[in-house]
Amino acid sequence: MIEFPEEILQAIVESIAMSRILPHKNRQEYQTTELLPLSMVNCQLRRICLPFLFSYVEVKGHPDVEKLTALCAVNKDFAASIKSIDLSHFLFPLLSQLPPSHFPNLVQINSTCNQLTIPLITAIKFHPAPTFFFESFTLPPSTSILDNQLLSPSDLAKVILDQQTVTDELKLIDIGKYLSRGVRVNILSITLNTFTTPVLNDSFGERKFLVFANLCYK
After folding, report:
1. Which DSSP string corresponds to 123-161?
2. In this structure, are residues 110 and 133 in contact, taking their beta carbons and an 8 Å threshold?
3. Which domain of life does the protein's organism represent (predicted)?
4. What is this structure's pTM?
5. Is the N end or the C end of the chain the one with fewer CB atoms within 10 Å?
């Protein structure tokens, strides 16, 4: 095989990995179908492909937690490739069994959890992962979280919600309080039957939040 400079091979692998945007939002997941055969050509290409092949892993049960921890302990290159972990909502009490030292480049934990539980609050507060991403999540009343200081602004800044739908004025006010304390929302959909501009202004005012990609009003 003709030897190519490392930089060229790296550019080729990156181009293949990013050739198609996968539908999973915010998950650090790349195209791997074409990379798999390429990674088997030789050790050099395997090493270059590794960070893309294993950037995203799913943990669906307790056995997965044990296997992932054991594999990361013996394979540092594999562990260093992981940037995003999909964690089932019932596994958050087991998050402590995934030592941060095993995942030096972890940037995000994704979950299907749809409500704020004590294990989830504990994870957000104390796990060093900088981002927690939720596809479908019901925010509790702001008084129960913000007034009681269960999560600080630095904790809330770790939270990304894929989509939030506002159906009443109280929810709109609540969302404004969460956004002002760091929570990020990809899509904010407002579906009020009787919508008044002052309510929106009272909730968001003239503050500019870099927290959602789309604001929809229906």
Report:
1. HHHH---S-EEEEE--PPPHIIIIITTSS-HHHHTTEEE
2. yes
3. Eukaryota
4. 0.77
5. N
Q: What is the DSSP letter of 75?
A: -
DSSP 74: H
Q: Crossing angle of helices 6-17/43-53, nearest 10°?
A: 40
> What is the residue type of 200?
L
The per-residue b/e assignment along 174-197, b for 16 or more CB within 10 angstroms, e otherwise, is bbbbbbbbbbbbbebbbebeeeee
Task: Report the distance separating Cα 182 and Cα 151, nearest Å.
Answer: 11
Q: For 127, left (φ over 0), alpha (ψ -120 to 50), or beta?
A: beta
d(CA 162, CA 136): 7
Question: Would you state the structure tokens that stand for residue 146, as one six-digit string?
Answer: 């913000």
**Of residues 183, 133, 125, the one with CA closest to residue 151:** 125
Q: Which two tokens stand for residue 116?
A: 């704020």
Following DSSP, what letter does each residue of 88-100 receive, concatenated? -GGGGGGGGGS-G
Residue type, 7: E
Could you report the per-residue pLDDT of 115-158, keeping only the tens digit for each?
A: 888 888 888 998 898 999 988 788 888 877 877 788 899 999 99
Q: Are 204 and 176 in contact (CB under 8 A)?
A: yes
Q: Spell out the SS3 assignment of 40-94.
A: CCCHHHHHHHHHHHCCEEEECCHHHHHHHHHHHHHCHHHHHHCCEEEECHHHHHH
Backbone angles phi, psi at 48, to 5 degrees: -70, -35
CB 68 within 8 A of CB 90: no
